[in-house]
Design a protein that fits this description.
Length: 411
Amino acid sequence: MSSLAKGAAARWLRRLLMLLAIACSFPVSAADGAQPGEPEIWLVTYGPGEIYWQRFGHNAIWVRDPGLGLDHVFNFGFFDFQQEDFFVRFLKGRMLYFSAARPAQEEFTSYINENRSIRAQRLDLSSDQKLVLTEHLLAEIRPENRDYLYDYYLNNCSTRVRDAIDLAMGGLLKAEFLPRPATQTWRDHTRRLTHADFWLYLGLEIGLGSPVDQTISRWDEMFIPELLAESLASLEYAGGEAGRPLVVEDVALFTSSIVSPPASPHAWWPRYLLASLIVLLAAALLCRFVGSRGAVLLARCWLVLSGAIGVVLLFFWLGTDHSVTRFNMNLLVVCPAWLLLAFWTDNEQRVLQIIAVVSSLAVALFWLPPHQYNADVLAAFIPLNLASAYGLFRYRSLSANRPDVPASADR
């Protein structure tokens, strides 16, 4: 047998063993308080995956009710690339997600195949609470109810799970966690969970405005599946009786080999400053071969690109439903005005002065309220903006000192 075939066989054997372990681990739950045949409600939390939309993790509610013939996982995280106007909806912030229920074994197999961790927590809810939750979940997967407008922070797969459990508990979950301040902001969590993706991280840092830097509550923080699981594990309330843990079983069904994200964001701006300096070095070397006219073309192209990004930010702010892209201080870094300055050929010195002043303001606002964390964007773009403006000014100065050489000549 080839090494490739052996590796595939080993992976399938591991998955088979994991599925057998899953199948065998839960009938013993009666010994921990659940009566044989009694419905069980489990919060299932999936770890981050390797695809960019899997970086935040995922969760679902697992209902095991022999009386109703249910052994299904109710999942609010489905979307369809083939849906009508998918790309337009995505751009405008009106993307539709939908809920569905899958047999537990089928659900878990798909996440094991993606090498994503699976954590299951049995909730000690009363019979009435279990009934309310089950009826709600069954209603949510009906064709007329299953679609919902997705929001990254306010209405995602995890907040839908949170709200369903809170509904079953009569609002006690929200009452417990809404008054508590969160440990981190929406941006902090976004940064720590996406830091491994160089371009995804930078793109989100460019596009997200100051709303994601506001103070939030522990309730809001549960848009992260992992934090919902940790919050429920810390809650002492069960079946209408305070002082008892809500989570009575907490088991790992599968452990991924994917490295877990850090618990808090770190200062990753140096890598973007280094990348910016490398680009400048490469541009300087290139200019030695393309001459001054080529150097000016590079400078103008960069300002056009930077200004075009600013136009996109304005579109997301003013022309879409993406509330988290509003009041974006990055418009001082990737400024739409750069599009005009790129072709202002009468006074390159003024171009340099304007870009230097606006860049200084952008850096100053980093330290002033309303605060928006954008150190990564400042590190990535300001050196390139200033270098481009200086390149235009220097070329114009050289031309002025050599009137015998046309401004467009290559030297």
